Amino acid sequence: MSVPKMRFGLVGAGAIAQTWCQAFEHSHTAQLVGIVDVREEVATAVAERMKCKPFTAPADLVDELHPDAVVLCTPPSTHPELCSWFLGQGINVLCEKPLAVGLDEARAMLDAAEQSDALLTMASKFRYVTDVVQAKSIVSSGLIGDLILFENAFTSRVDMTHRWNADPEISGGGVLIDNGTHSVDILRYFLGPIVELQVIEGKRVQDIPVEDTVRMFVRSEGGVMGSIDLSWSLNKELPYYLSIYGSQGTVHVGWKESKYRRASDDKWTIFGKGYDKFQAFSSQLDNFVKASRGEEAPLITLADALASVEVIEAGYDAMWRAAWVPVENQLSEAFGKAS
Q1: Which of 64, 78, 237, 253 is the right S-S partner for 242, CB 3.0 to 4.6 Å?
Q2: What angle separates helix 79-88 from helix 58-65, to the nearest 10 degrees?
Q3: pLDDT per residue over 278-330, tens digit each?
């Protein structure tokens, strides 16, 4: 007998919700039964497309449809209250990243999860990209030897002047918490816990009250260095968003292809076709359904989600109190004058 699809509500019908709708349209394990958005016209438009019911309040969704789970796509500042409420109703919650704007809010969500039989975890699409999973297998196999350096770049030019992501009261910060949550989650996936970090803010280009470019340096528990570039104002135009360097080789994970080469190899070995957003969301949805049913473990655990909040909060602390060491340049200046 076929297992009935898990019934979902989608809370928040903004940009990211449109990709979730695509995942639901092709899912063999999940069915979208309701859309919630405070903007009635938006909820209605998305619901018509998805052939489900629109709502403007979560309570109405639950009272009428009794969903098994929800995907939460609202701004981060709303996550603690909404997650806690849904968990209190016994409804599983897949919460879009970042999990929370800070540790206090994350702890409230943890408390709600511990008091509920329902599952709470964070959505972070890159963990589910086929090439990322394959790269993790290559690295774990020891094929490229001992890991030395991890590099990640999520940079693109995006006008953030009229988006809630650039309102710190709603988003918790700028590009560091927004794109950086992905970076931290991927890095921990490959390297394990992060024990030290430094964050340097770049020149602010956009007229927004938050950082639009940062560079993050980290060290893992195993002593591996990491470098992360994040920006809404520049595009490094790199073919690869992950590069992992080991004592015996290198792995690149890219937008259009992924490859590795050992030190003894003459040529690169291509192992992936690049980033497939639809595949990543579909795999994430399928994993969440099976984890909710106890059929498999969630790839991103609640501990992973909380760790990402801890690292990002430490990152902001480091960014605000970053200490630069002045270079006197006395000898070089004197030599220049003399010559």
Answers
A1: 253
A2: 20
A3: 999 999 999 999 999 999 999 999 999 999 999 999 999 999 987 667 777 66
Q: Which CATH number describes the domain made up of 127-275?
A: 3.30.360.10
The owner of tokens 């480091």 is 318
User: What is d(CA 31, CA 9) in angstroms, rounded to the nearest whole number?
Assistant: 9
> Where do the structural domains in the chain lie, given as residue ranges?
6-123, 127-275
Rounded CA gap, 65 and 80, in Å?
23
Integer angstrom CA distances of residue 272 from 138, 250, 257, 262: 12, 15, 5, 16
pLDDT tens digits, residue range 195-239? 999 999 999 999 999 999 999 999 999 999 999 999 999 999 999
* Confidence at residue 2, expressed as pLDDT on a 0 to 100 scale: 74
Residue 238 and residue 258: Cα distance in Å, rounded? 13
Mention the CATH class of domain 6-123: alpha beta
Residue 211 is given by DSSP the state -
Please list the ranges in the chain whose pLDDT falls under 70: 1, 323-324, 329-339
Residue with tokens 């497939």: 276
Pairing of strands 147-155, 194-201: unpaired
- Exposure string over 11-21, b if 16+ CB within 10 A, otherwise e: bbbbeebebbb
